[in-house]
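Researcher: I'm preparing a figure for a lab meeting and need a structural model of a single chain. I don't have an experimental structure, so a prediction will have to do for now. The sequence is pasted below. Please return the structure as tokens so I can convert it later.
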Amino acid sequence: MRSAKAAFLVFLLVFLAGTAGLVDDDDRRRHVTFYNSYAYLDGNEWVIPARVWVHKDRGWLESLSSWTVRIVGEYPPDEMEVYRRRMTDLLSDSKWRRTVSIMFEGDPEEHVYRIKNSDGEAPRTDRNGIIKGKIRVPVEHAVWMHGHDEDKKMRINARSNRYRGGGYVRFMQPHGLSVISDIDDTIKVTEIPAGSRIVVRNTFFREYSAAPGMADMYEQWPEASFHYVSGSPWQLYRSLSGFLFSEEAGFPVGTFHMKNARKNLFTVSSWTDLVEFITNEHLTFEQKIGQITDIFEHFPDRRFIMVGDSGERDPEVYRTIRQRFPDQVKEIIIRDVINDRELRSERLDGMTIKPAPTIRPGISEKDVGI
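Model: Understood. Here is the structure written out token by token.
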């Protein structure tokens, strides 16, 4: 019951955060989050699907949130510290009508780029602090690719007045190997089949844990590009990427593709997202199909390995993709966390099964020491 109340307060505070704000002149709290992306060739240009978020941490709201949850849930101090860190981006103050400039580190001519929409215009951030679109880099400007026939990872700097940030873009050749990877219960222990109480605890109150053996498997594909497609909201990007790409977890740096969860109550889109999260059980399925399809269409000559788990609908997502792009799918690997290999073997037909401990409803492996 305490976890259910805490979860309700978490989401209430997230959506209320879109309408509140206090003055804070600390530049360390100002961020431009550039979500790791890729570049593909289109004629004489490199095209980068881009998403940036301009935002500022709200220390006062983080403290209020932690205080409220502590009263309701009686969580130990170490879990409350994790909760406060995990909630930073969910409670951030998104900045509206901001322009963002993009530069590549190592560009000798220091070209400045803007994200442009489908009309070729460079929009400002929306009420949720977001700009989505594409960056187009002429081939002659991408000097870091001249004479190279392999993928190249480039760091970018993003600026919006006093707001700063950065990220990576992987310039990908038309041919090669790519890996599509789910996150929760595929490479990070979330225990989704155990139920919402345990998922909330593992997501917001506990340090992340890597799924055993998965980083070692990913090391077998050193030349591959990696694309992490997750049903988690974009506001968990920094905590997830910081963990997955750490020395502790050891997963390869890759692009992220996550779920929209807008939280500015003055926009209709935020209410639409909230209703979708609550009522649409197919939302993650539809999101993953769309995002993976985009990647396949941008690289029609690449081969793909898709890795997921049996706890949600990854087998159905990947089967749908294989039906659409049969010549591009090299292998589907499923980490079986609900024993489908014995109970529903037909669900995993034609897929490589990676056995894992079975996750049971209402039982956390961390609690019982499995």
